[in-house]
Amino acid sequence: MTLTTIILAAGKGTRMCSQYPKVLHSIGGKSLLRHVYDLSAKFENNTIHVVIGHGAYLVKSTFSNSLIHWVEQLQQLGTGHAVQQVADEIDSETTVLILYGDVPLLQENTLQKLLSNVNEKTLSLLTVNLKNSTGYGRIVRNEHNQVLRIVEEKDSNETEKLIKEANTGILAVQGYALKNWLTQLNNNNAQGEYYLTDIIALAVADGFTIKTCSPESENEVLGVNDKLQLAQLERVYQLQQADLIMKRGATLRDPARFDLRGHIVELGQDVEIDINVVFEGDNKIGNNVKIGANTNIKNAIIGDNVEILPNCVIENAVIGQNSRIGPFARLRPESVLASDTHIGNFVEIKKSHIGQGSKVNHLSYIGDALVGRKVNIGAGTITCNYDGANKSQTIIEDGAFIGSNTQLVAPVSVGENATIGAGSTITKDTPAGQLTLSRAKQVSVPNWQRPIKKEKL
Ligand code: UD1
Ligand code: CA
User: What pTM, to 2 d.p., does this model score?
Assistant: First the structure.
């Protein structure tokens, strides 16, 4: 079976009160349209068309994907009109699937079910029974329970308004039939729009059966129209992600306070995640990892037995096994920590390699540095890596001890097992094994008197 998917995404989304097109707002860090695209991309032999209008350029620019066929609908004259824009591209022999760019939580198995119902004389329609179907097109059936047509809310009479079965808008049908019905649409209705929903009555007139099915959960077909619905669907999505990660074995202290805006591509056993941890990008987490509260982790590789204490920000970093990070530590991009490292409170590491067993426990900035094994970096150490124009490297060799409040003015290196006296400003390479310090000698002034406050005149 070959498939043609048409994703409708031309609407403005006025109620989002945003300068961005609605389908670019995101759930779980991924745009609404991307959710729908990714789902349709799971189906093979599928040509995907996306109908865009408002913010067309912006929408296109968020996809580098040349596999999408973009179709511009210059005026939004209705869902039927939107599909008409693609009509010439539809191969008569394919099955056409219609999706909405603002309905992001649809599941693959629901679409499989929908598609499996399509045949020569059957149009497959996804409907849902709602307690409150206000705003939706209603499914009108005859006394034999056969679907006759869809009536839009604004065109409906009082009896039709009572119908609970709502049109989700999602349907599948053979290409040749759809193309034929598209030429017969008109806009003689309350909204003066070309309704795609009118094809149902046309199909029935052509002797088609309308076969309906429903999603497992109503959430799958909920659309986003405003920021409230965006937030509601975000929570639904995040609870699904929390469920999935718990099924993979993670312990979540509170699944309602877990946010995944990317992926956990690898997850070890006995991983504990405290509240308000936000993951972005692609992350790998080893065995026995503990992640403290209020931590942001993006594109990280975290080794076995790592403990991340609360309030850390970690981005594009590698943390070797048995290491301890935080509280309040920041690992910036290209930070690579070997095993058994300690990065403590108010420490910022950027584009640096920290060797096995090394410690930077308090209040330090280590940037553009190569730090060897078993190095101890005292509180308040700064690598002065930037002269206002260029960045330079600091090298600290194995076993070095850097006294507190040291400035290492790069480019500079500290030799193996060297010791730097506290409070030094190091501007030249320091030899291995020796004590180097640059502070002024301490003096005490005997018989010195504190100034005495003068009487006011
Ligand atoms: C539509 C259905 C309604 C269904 C509801 C489900 C019609 C006539 N009505 O109504 O039966 O219950 O969806 O949510 O189809 N769009 C375009 N171009 C247009 C108009 C819309 O691309 O000219 C896109 C929108 O961006 C959106 C989708 O089509 O993604 C649905 O449009 P919307 O205006 O929200 O349709 P509803 O009036 O809600
Ligand atoms: Ca809608």
Answer: 0.92
Cα 157 versus chain centre, distance: 43
**Ligand 1: residues whose CB is within 6 Å?**
8-11, 51, 73, 76-79, 81-82, 100-102, 136-137, 150, 152, 166-169, 195-197, 223
**Which atom of ligand 1 is found nearest the CA of 9?**
26
Ligand in closest contact with the CA of 195:
1
Residue 78 confidence (pLDDT): 96
Q: Whose CA is nearest to atom 32 of ligand 1?
A: 79
> Is 362 in the active site?
yes
Are 266 and 243 contacting, i.e. CB atoms less than 8 angstroms apart? no
pLDDT for 11: 87
pLDDT (0 to 100) of residue 323: 99
pLDDT given at position 181: 98
Give the chain's domains with CATH numbers: 3-221 (3.90.550.10), 245-436 (2.160.10.10)
Q: Write the DSSP string, 1-54.
A: --EEEEEEE----GGG--SS-GGGSEETTEEHHHHHHHHHTTSSSEEEEEEEBT
34-54 tens-digit pLDDT: 999 999 999 999 999 999 999
Q: How far is the CA of 237 from the centre of ligand 1 (A)?
A: 22
Ligand number, closest to the Cα atom of 166: 1
Q: Are 228 and 244 in contact (CB under 8 A)?
A: no
Cα distance between residue 354 and residue 423, in whole Å: 22
Atom of ligand 1 nearest to the CA of 137: 11
Spans of the chain below 50 pLDDT: none
Catalytic residue among 69, 263, 353, 362: 362
- The reported pLDDT for the residue numbered 286 is 98
